[in-house]
């Protein structure tokens, strides 16, 4: 299953991630590029970049949440367009791949964007089941309810990716 974590920007993090000081002192373009890997909204990344330096990780995460709540529908669509739906490991049975592909297709047909879910806290072996059960449950949502759930999942994904970015996970 593809990792749902922030990929470091080479100019900022190197091979072991970065610490908050390096993030705070990085050139704006590098910080913004790293943040875009955490959530694909330019406005969100620019806002966080402009508010540096952050005194600690909690302040950065709070700012990320606040900026996430303030995203316009266009900003959310941009961020969703940058997401990749979670999949299965290649060695999973073909039937599982087909079931997940059908679930993703049904979700995208109903809501017009990829399915996003934060899998932080779940063991890799549990993640495929979480994805499939999440899609199935959320297919029952009305569009307004799903918009709220999707926005929350995107904020959770961004928080985990930011934490990985500045802690080197």
Q: Give the tally of structural domains.
A: 2
In the CATH hierarchy, what is the superfamily of the largest domain?
Oxo-4-hydroxy-4-carboxy-5-ureidoimidazoline decarboxylase
Low-confidence stretches: 1-11, 13-17
Number of strands: 0
CATH class of the largest domain: Mainly Alpha
CATH architecture of the largest domain: Orthogonal Bundle
**Largest pleated sheet:** none
N-to-C order of helices and strands:
HHHHHHHHH
The CATH topology label of the largest domain is: UraD-like
> Mean of the pLDDT scores?
89
Report Rg: 16 Å
Helix count equals 9
Q: Give the percentage of residues in beta strands.
A: under 5%
The level of helicity is 55-70%
Overall geometry: globular
Distance between the termini: 17 Å
* Category by helix and strand content: mainly alpha
Kindly describe this structure.
With 169 residues, the chain is mainly alpha-helical. It folds into 2 domains: 10-79 and 156-167, UraD-like (Orthogonal Bundle), CATH 1.10.3330; 84-153, no CATH class. Helices cover 63% and strands 0% of the residues. It contains 9 helices and no strands. It has helices at residues 10-13, 20-25, 28-38, 42-50, 57-69, 73-81, 94-111, 127-138, 143-167. The protein is globular. 34% of the residues are buried. Residues 1-11 and 13-17 have low confidence and may be disordered.
Which features would summarize this protein structure in a list?
63% helix, mainly alpha, 2 domains, UraD-like, disordered N terminus, 169 residues
């Amino acid at each position: 299953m593809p990792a749902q974590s922030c990929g470091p920007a080479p100019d900022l993090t190197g091979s072991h991630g970065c610490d908050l000081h390096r993030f705070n002192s990085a050139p704006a373009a590098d910080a913004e590029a790293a943040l875009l890997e955490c959530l694909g909204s330019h406005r969100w990344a620019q806002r966080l970049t402009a508010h540096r330096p952050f005194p600690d990780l909690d302040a950065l995460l709070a700012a990320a949440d606040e900026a996430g709540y303030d995203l316009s529908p266009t900003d959310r669509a941009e961020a969703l367009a940058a997401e990749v739906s979670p999949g299965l490991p290649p060695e999973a049975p073909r039937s599982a791949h087909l079931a997940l592909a059908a679930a993703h297709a049904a979700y995208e047909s109903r809501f017009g964007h990829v399915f996003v879910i934060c899998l932080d806290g779940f063991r890799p072996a549990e993640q495929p089941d979480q994805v499939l059960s999440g899609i199935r449950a959320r297919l029952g949502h009305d569009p307004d309810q799903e918009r709220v759930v999707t926005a929350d999942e995107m904020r959770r994904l961004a928080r985990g990716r930011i934490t990985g970015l500045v802690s080197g996970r």
